Structure formats: C-alpha cells, structure tokens
Amino acid sequence: MFELTGQTALVTGGAKGIGKGIATALAKAGARVVIADIDAAQGEIIARELHGHFVHCDVTSQADCKAAVAAAVKLGGTLEILCSNTGIFPQARLDSMTEADWDQMHSVNLKGMFFMVQAALEPMRQQHYGRVVITSSITGPVTGFPGWSHYGASKAGQLGFMRSAALEVANLGITLNAVMPGNILTEGLADQGETYLNQMRAAIPTHTLGEPEDIGHAACFLASPEARFITGQQIIVDGGQILPESADAIE
C-alpha cells in the first residue's frame, strides 16, 4: 500500500525543513520527486540526494509556478502529486505589524499556494487523476500564538481555499487535502532559540518535537491512490499538542 513508484511529485519549498521531509518521504515511497524552491543551491543538493530534479521557483510569481509545473510534466510525462508546502513565518506583533509584513506573509503563504494549485490542476484535469497536499498549520485554524496573527490568518485561509477547490475537481479523480503540523524541528523553528524550543516540548504530550518526515509520512498517505475517497480534509500532526485542557493534563 501507498506505493508511489512511477508517479511524479512536485514539492514546493522542498529544499529544507518540512518540505525536505515531504520530498524525502515521497522519494522513499518510489515517487519521482521534483523540488521547486527559491534556494537554488540547497535545492540542487537535496534533489541530487533524492535522485530527483530541481527547478527554481518563486511561488509569488504566477509565471514561475506555471513553469515549475511544466518542467515537472516534461520530466515525468505526467504530474500526479503536488505538495504545496512553501511558507514563511516571520513574527510581528499587531502594535508594530506593517502593511508590508501582512502582504508578504499572504503573498507567499496564501497567494503562492493558489498559484501552484491552479497551475497543477491543469494537467491533473487532463489525466483525470491528481493528489494535492497543502501544508497548513495548527496555528491559525486551531491555535494561536502572539506575533503570528498574520501567519495564522494565512494558514486558516489555506484551508478555506482547499474545501471549495476540492469540490470543483471532486468528480475528476483529484483530491485536495492538508497536513497541519504542530511544532516540527526545522531550521526555522531552531532559529527561535532553545528557550522557545523547550517551552514547546513542555507543551506537547510526547515532550518531543516532530521531525520533518513525520509530516512527509502523512503527506504520502494523502498523496496515495488509496486515499481516493478523502478530499477537502486535514490531518493534524502535532504529537497531541492541541489535546490538553491545561498544563496539568500532561504533567
């Protein structure tokens, strides 16, 4: 089950972090992985490690997104899987957040996802098959954290987009679903500092942070043929982080 051999998977933001974890899991499942990222140097390295391919892509450019999809189709002949993962999460509190802060967050996280999904659906419609997996977050749709109101809004927006978009292609063998990571030990999370990381570990019932491939495994399931009857849904992958009513519940 969950065999992806012979399928082409395009992963945005696959050069590092959660995207790298997703790309790695897909490659282990047999998929031909195409990494689309703005970081060409790191993207090329990961593509070589996974025996895949790299294409430079700025997801805020609709032309770049269309070109990335075209490159994936050219390499594989078809495009079965899109993992729309690119995202940023700079902090900005409301009293100092600027219009530029808000616009940058939504341009990358929300508009970039829209551009990629729209581009990928074109070949998927033609072949009457496709799996789209969006990387959302628990922050926004379920939880909140000071300094990330703009981030939370973008991640909740992704899920709203996904549900309606899923309906438009439901009868074409195409599914759209999302993974919602909790705190995953990526380069970006590590940059928040050890104090923050320890606070997060203490708030998670497992007392551990997730690994990027934990998200990759969930994405592999949603990208598989076996997940054909699941669409417009989300899977939370957070070590039980959202479960406790209070800190006392996990002591």
What overall geometry do the principal axes of the alpha carbons give?
globular
CATH class descriptor name: Alpha Beta
Secondary-structure-based class equals: alpha/beta
Query: Main sheet, how many strands, which sense, barrel?
Result: 7 strands, parallel
Portion in beta strands: 5-15%
CATH topology: Rossmann fold
* Average pLDDT taken over every residue: 96
Q: Give the low-confidence spans.
A: none
Number of strands: 7
Supply the number of structural domains: 1
Secondary structure tally, helices:
8
- CATH superfamily assignment? NAD(P)-binding Rossmann-like Domain
Helical percentage: 40-55%
The CATH architecture designation is 3-Layer(aba) Sandwich
Q: In sequence order, what are the helices and strands, one letter per element?
A: EHEHEHEHEHEHHHE
Terminal CA distance reads 38 Å
**Radius of gyration, CA atoms, in whole angstroms:** 17 Å
Strand order of the largest sheet: 3-2-1-4-5-6-7
Keywords: Oxidoreductase
Family: Belongs to the short-chain dehydrogenases/reductases (SDR) family.
Protein name: 3-oxoacyl-[acyl-carrier protein] reductase
InterPro entries: NAD(P)-bd_dom_sf, SDR_fam
Supply the key terms.
seven-stranded parallel β-sheet, 45% helix, 15% strand, oxidoreductase activity
Secondary structure elements and pairings:
Blueprint: E1 8-12, H1 17-28, E2 32-37, H2 40-49, E3 53-56, H3 62-76, E4 81-84, H4 99-127, E5 130-135, H5 149-169, E6 174-181, H6 187-190, H7 194-203, H8 212-223, E7 234-237
Parallel strand pairs: 1-2, 1-4, 2-3, 4-5, 5-6, 6-7
Helix pairs in contact: 1-8, 3-4, 4-5
